[in-house]
Every structure is written in C-alpha cells, then in structure tokens.
Amino acid sequence: MFQKFLAGKTAVVTGSNSGIGLGIAHRLAAAGADVVLNSFTDRDEDHALADTLAREHGVNVRYIQADMSKGDECRSLIAQAGRCDILVNNAGIQHVAAIQDFPVEKWDAIIAINLTSAFHTTAAALPLMRAAGWGRIINVASAHGLTASAYKSAYVAAKHGIVGFSKVTALETAKEPITCNAVCPGYVLTPLVEAQIPATMKEYGLSRDEVIQKVMLERQPSKDFVTVEQLGDTTVFLCSDAAAQITGTAISVDGGWTAL
User: Fold this and answer.
1) Gap between the Cα atoms of 189 and 108, Å rounded
2) Which residue among 10, 75, 126, 218 is least crowded, i.e. fewest CB within 10 A of its CB?
3) What pLDDT does residue 191 have?
4) C-alpha to C-alpha distance for 206 and 214, rounded to whole angstroms
C-alpha cells in the first residue's frame, strides 16, 4: 500500500514482539523505516524476530529489552535506540475485576504500562525529534479510551488518559513538524484473543462463531475484527505528508463501536 517513503527514519514501537505492536512494526518496516522492537523479555526468539523482520523488509531492525512499568527503562529504551523519528506507544496489559475487588498491584501495573510509560518515552523522544526537525507520535489507545465497560476500571482510566495525553502533546508541538495522535482500536484478533476463544466456548457452551459474534463482538457493529494490518496502515498513514495537519485527534478503528 505504501512505498518506502519512511526510508531513513527510525521507529520505536513498544510492546512489539507480538500482536498489534508487531503488526504495526511490519507495516512501518514495509514503508522503509528502521525499527526498534521492544518487550520486557530478552529471549533468543525476540532477537530472531528482529532479524526476520529485517530480512523480510530490507531495513535495520533491533530488539531492545525494556520493562515499560519502570520509568527509567522507558527512557533508556529511547536512549539506546539513539534515534526516534516515530514513536509508537503500544505496550499494554489488561485485568478484569469489579472496583471493590480490583487488586491494587494490578491497578498500579496497568496505569504504569498503559499510560505512564507513554509519558516517559515521549519525554525522552521529543528532544530527538526536535533535533531531527520531524517527528510522529502514535499512541495506541482503544475504543475504551472513548467509552467504557464495567469491570475494566484501570484499563478504561489508562486509555482515556492516553487520549488526553495525546492532545496535550499535540498542543505542545503544534508549531513544529511533529504530530501526536491516538489510534483507538475495537476488538482485534491477536494471538492473545485467539487463545481466549476455546475457554470462552467451554464456559458458555457456545460454538466458536457464537463466541465471536455474541460475546467478543457484541459491541462492535461491523461484527468483524479489526486486523493488525489495518492498524499498521493507519499508523503509516499518520506518518505521511497527507497527515501533517492531523494532530491531537483520536482516530477510531473500531467497526462502528463508538458510533453507538
């Protein structure tokens, strides 16, 4: 879809050794960007994934381990990258429980990884973008950054926070060639979601299709999953000249969820 117009740029994608982050990394690499993959693990397969991505797209790809729950490691990730023209804050976790039963340690971890990490990486990346004279920040929020669901208090709070943080970042960079936007996906069929289907089938006594349509996609009017490729292409578009005046927005890729 996109030619290699990002050649010479470096993209740092947090939480990118699987799922949405990896899908975005693939699309950025296909558009010519060098890529820094990241997660909290430091396994041979993480580094092998970077090698595979590099060979497939003919760009430089590195894997840098950093725990996004720790501010100093968030900032170190950007420092180790050395250059950050495109920052994709994607790292995130989830936990479901009623407010009165929500474990404090889970709340703290979700806020740290899903929200506070973006503050640290952005603070570290902005000086590099200003020195380079160009920058794009894409924060992966959620439909839950614009609406809410019961039992997801920490996740909804963090994703609403990411949308607000994106607006502030956009205002602080509005007179510079730097943009910041939030992308708000609906339900995405990642390997993690795929793995939940058999257990949900057993729990509710439903078929695979019934689980997908009646449980997972209940609030998604299209009744179809968002794909990681679609999110990747949305991210690449936001890095293009056509999107130079798109900043401070929340872009929904949710099959109509937030239109309800």
Assistant:
1) 26
2) 218
3) 84
4) 9
**Which CATH topology does 10-188+226-254 take?**
Rossmann fold (3.40.50)
Q: What is the distance between the alpha carbons of residues 11 and 81, in angstroms, rounded to a whole number? A: 9
The pLDDT averaged over each successive group of 10 residues in the chain (260 residues) is 89 98 98 98 98 98 98 98 98 95 98 98 99 98 97 97 99 98 96 87 94 94 97 98 98 97
Among candidates 79, 22, 56, 25, which has minimal Cα distance to 239?
25
Q: What is the pLDDT of residue 2?
A: 67
**Rounded Cα distance, 26 and 33, in Å:** 10
Segment 153-157 long-range contacts (CB within 8 Å, at least 24 positions apart): 153/99, 153/102, 153/107, 154/95, 154/102, 154/106, 154/107, 154/110, 154/111, 154/114, 155/92, 155/94, 155/95, 155/110, 155/114, 157/111, 157/115
Q: Rounded distance, CA 84 to CA 124, Å? A: 9
Nearest-angstrom CA–CA distance, 161 and 176: 23
Tokens 């939480």 sit on residue: 15
Positions annotated as catalytic residues are: 155
Question: What's the predicted TM-score (pTM) here?
Answer: 0.96
Q: How many angstroms separate the CA atoms of 123 and 74, rounded? A: 10
